[in-house]
Specification:
By secondary structure, the chain is mostly helical. The protein has one domain: lambda repressor-like DNA-binding domains (434 Repressor (Amino-terminal Domain), Orthogonal Bundle). Helix 3 crosses helix 4. The chain starts with 12 loop residues before the first helix and ends with a strand.
Length: 103
């Protein structure tokens, strides 16, 4: 019986610095940030799509790490998610959507 099947994986430093590897990581972080904020708000993908002026398939593609985060897309989703967007490449995850503080 094996335990922690994938817990021992180590990514070599040269792979972590590869542009394709970093781009995939950004897409995954972005996908998770959208999903987390949408879930916190209790919204379906259809509701977020409606608020963002996008199709439900677009939102699903984003949440499946299939879309590169662009500044325009971040702004569009931050507005729809009633939040601010935080990007910090020094941290993991790099992306977060944070609700606005009550005034």
């Amino acid at each position: 019986m094996s335990s922690g099947y994938h817990t021992g994986w180590q990514v070599p430093a040269e792979h972590r610095e590869d542009p394709a590897y970093r781009a995939a990581g950004r897409r995954m972080d972005f996908a998770q940030a959208v999903y987390d904020r949408r879930s916190t708000l209790g919204w379906s993908t259809a509701e977020l799509a409606r608020r963002a002026g996008m199709s439900e398939e677009d939102i699903e593609s984003i949440e499946e790490s299939g879309v590169d985060p662009t500044l325009e897309l971040l702004e569009q989703l931050a507005t729809a998610l009633e939040s601010g967007a935080r990007i910090d490449p020094r941290t993991s995850p790099e992306f977060r959507f944070e609700g606005h503080a009550a005034a």
